[in-house]
Amino acid sequence: MSKIHVSTSINGDAVEYLCDPSETLLDVLRNRVGLTGAKEGCGSGDCGACSVELDGRLVCSCLVLAAEAEGKEVSTVEGMADGEKLHVLQQKILDHAALQCGVCTPGILVAAKALLEKNPDPTETEVRYWLAGNLCRCTGYDKIIRAVMDAAAEMRGA
Amino acid sequence: MVTEYKEGSVGAELGQREFKVVGTRPPRPDGVDKVTGRALFGADLTAPGMLHATILRSPHAHAKIVSIDTSAALAMDGVKAVVTSDDFVKQGGSGNQDTLDNCMARGKVFYDGHAVVAVAATSVMVANAALKLIKVEYEILPHETDVDAAMLDSAPVLHAGRKFRNIPEGNNANVSGFWEFGHGDIDEGFAKADIIVERSFKTAATHQGYIEPHATLATMGPDGRGEIWVSTQGHYMVRDLSAAFVGMETSQLRVTAAEIGGGFGGKTTVYLEPVALALSKKSGRPVKMVMTREEVFRASGPTTSSSTDVKIGMTKDGRITAGQAKPRYQGGAYPNITAMLGAMTAFASYDLEAVQTQAWNVLTNRPKQAAYRAPGAPMAIYTVESVIDELCQKLDLDPIEVRLMNAAKKGTLSSYGPTFDEIGLVATLEAAKAHPHYAAPLGPNQGRGVSCGFWFNFAGNTSVSMGINEDGTVSVIEGNPDIGGSRASISMMAAEELGIPFDKVRTIVGDTNSIGFNDVTDGSRVTFSVGLATIKAARAAIQNMCGRAAQVWGIDADAVDWVDGAAVPTGHNAGEFPPMTLAEIAADSAKTGGPIAGHHEVNADGAGVSFGVHLVDVEVDPETGFTEIKRYTVFQDAGKAIHPDYVEGQMQGGAVQGIGWALNEEYIYGEDGKLQNAGFLDYRIPVASDLPMIDAVILEIPNPGHPYGVRGVGETGIVPPLAAVANGVSHAAGVRMSELPMSPPRILAAIDGAK
After folding, report:
1. Can you give the pLDDT at residue B169?
2. Closest chain B C-alpha to A95 CA, distance in angstroms
């Protein structure tokens, strides 16, 4: 089976790759591009651990074919911090101890960032429903919700 | 001089000790890696020349393997190695043989998803294509997946001769274990009761549901030396089992624990690791294996399902006169002791004159159960706490007052044998009673549930080593994978004992060749046991550093004390020399005798049992049977909370797993014995929008068995939610539920049935 050539942008960098027609964006990010921040928790779009933004839209990268990234902009957790400076959401997750094992954390961060880009002042209920597609088995979500609310408040003030 | 720590003598001082680091909330050392995507989990590592392996699994619930033909798969381009059970070393009739047979079926398959053949190839796609070319001839056998049905004489027998306890007459060959606990005259106890309630309950099997599937990377050269990188709760366990299964000495296999994406007990055994190692041995190349989510559900975990009869007698004023529970658990096709733990924990919260528990383990055609957070306790305690709630309802008594009246305390002869030392149940119940949650008004269709919970807590084999660096910092090596922030708590205890700031300490999880043996991260043992070993390793280093100072000062080593991170002269030398700090001693170490380090190895004891009380308000929609959690408060005795954020996190996370168990989660098998919901869409764990905030109230009743009073906190939190939610539902909907999960159709059927 011949491979497909894809030119795309990942976290602002121009990237080219060859992929099989059946390969997912998640497979390519992890196995061909070397960005393992997005995780595969289910491969069926149920857990959100593979969340990335595709042209600003929050997607499960396990449900996107790698070929679909042609000409688009992909944003992953690796692109959130600015050099040494963490994104406010990353800092708040740490400040609130809003992670235990940390495997869902990249997806939660990408999803929360997408939320705050659309809705800078979400209610607790809005945060809970937006993040309902991101499973966390460790925390019971309490500290995650607090961290996202706190980050939203700080970003509004900044 | 180091103040000698005498075992068991520290309880009195614990309440007074002023901590500088312990009890604060510093950022966790692995935090930045985990919010930036840099942290390397099980599936994140690659190796040059790496192959990928996948597994052919049984489509049948129970069958004889007549023949396996892998020739076409082996002949396929890109396929480098194939293994079956023939490629592993037999372990004899032990539990290890069961674990091996579960990794790769030998002779028979016992459940839908049981591994039969593994193929290593140049890609996952090639390996999966090769699986399709393997021909396995099965002779299908009758199967059974239900615990009660598997105990009937008509049930198909899974294994002959696997009874590992004295099984009473009248039990069939599927009953592999029987246990009995208790004290007092149970008949006399029931005779004293004013009221007796007797009920039967069932709970479904649930999965630990860690978000990270099992993943491993193994490599083995022609020299017979191997390496494994793996997501596990215990890399020494992985080393010992994998080495035995492929027939190598443990010293030749080095295992490194990856960051672990959740375990909850489910990563305390091996599935892929020996298989990847055997494939690497055959192919001469590194082999990576990652389970799909479907494989995680079909072939790893889950916990046991249960069927239990409970009988409790009570006086009119709320005193329990007798308690009896008969839990029957199935944990799949291989013997296990989870039912025993259920029998031990069922009545552990109470001070009873007469108590009797009898437990049965039953073999069924389901995956081999794995530990799940306080294994055995949630389902047993659910049944007891449900009946106590019904008794309170019938007698119009306050459920917390009744629990206080019967609560176990110091000196209580526990229902499973030992006499309790200092325990926190009464304080925990008092805290729940006094909390505003307990007095808050309830709306229409709402009900409030209460339940106690208990877990033993484990201790066990532990090794810690620490180096005092020349710049005054400290490097700690421990051997237990960090599943919830333990590197932070271990660093904190090292800093506390040494008298230096938290950020001067870095703790890593060493590989199996770096320090002595460690039991797996289980039983809520790590903060207790590794903490204990860390404190003692620090004391060894302090003793060494006091000796160095004494040498410099030219005084007797006994005349030096360690205060606030520095050696100080004592006795008649007091004040003669200025304090010599850890950094100063370390900087000159080459001149005073060489590197300074401390280490401690122990088979720890004295873990200290843990109790919790949960309060929940639920609202049941009478139209749909849907239950919403409106408010939830957890009260738990932590002994001493080293890092309160992560203690709260354990309490909150446990509560939410328990809520899932109570309301949604369930292994569903069809008549064909196949698992019908092997995915997160149909096996629904709680999501953020299902829940309110989970309030966590930490109590600190010091454990006399730990220098700082620590008790394990990881498991107790999953125990009370099953009954707390069930009791809340029964008050809200006016029906007593006796089967978990309390899914909307079940609740609706109960409401309709009561009309």
Report:
1. 87
2. 7
**In which domain, by residue range, is B650 found?**
421-457+608-755
| List of residues 6+ apart from B110 with CB closer than 8 A | B61, B62, B158, B332, B333, B334, B365
B136, B65 contact by CB (below 8 A) = yes
Q: DSSP assignment of A16-52, as one string?
A: EEEE-TT-BHHHIIIIII----S--S-SSSSS-TTEE
DSSP structure class, residue B712:
-
pLDDT digits over B34-86, tens only? 999 999 999 999 999 999 999 999 999 999 999 999 999 999 999 999 999 99
Residue of A40, A44, A93 lying closest to B43 (CB–CB): A40
A88-157 architecture in CATH? Orthogonal Bundle (1.10)
Mark whether B236 and B96 lie in a shared domain.
Answer: yes
ipTM over 0.90: yes
The residue type at A143: K
Q: Are B369 and B339 in contact (CB under 8 A)?
A: no
Final residue of a structural domain among B278, B299, B320: B299
Residue with tokens 């299902």: B690
The total number of structural domains in chain B stands at 3
B427-455 per-position pLDDT tens digit: 999 999 999 999 999 999 999 999 999 99
For B37, the closest of A37, A100, A145 (CB atoms) is A37
To the nearest whole Å, the CA of B693 is away from the closest chain A CA by 5
- Mark out the alpha helices in B435-485 (DSSP H runs): 436-439
Min Cα separation A70/chain B (Å): 23
Nearest partner of B304 among B409, B412, B203, judged by Cα? B203
CATH of A4-79, picked from 3.40.50.300, 3.10.20.30, 2.60.40.10, 3.10.450.710, is 3.10.20.30
Where exactly are the structural domains of chain A?
Answer: 4-79, 88-157
Residue B670 CA: distances (Å) to CA of B296, B482, B667, B739 = 18, 38, 10, 18
CATH number at residue B292: 3.90.1170.50
Q: Does B293 touch chain A (CB under 8 A)?
A: yes
Same domain, yes or no: B530 and B612: no
Q: Across the interface, do B37 and A133 touch by the CB < 8 Å criterion?
A: no
Nearest to A26 by CA among A100, A107, A102, A105: A107
The token duo for B94 is 């032990």
Eight-class DSSP state of B364: -
Distance of CA B690 to the CA centre of its chain: 24
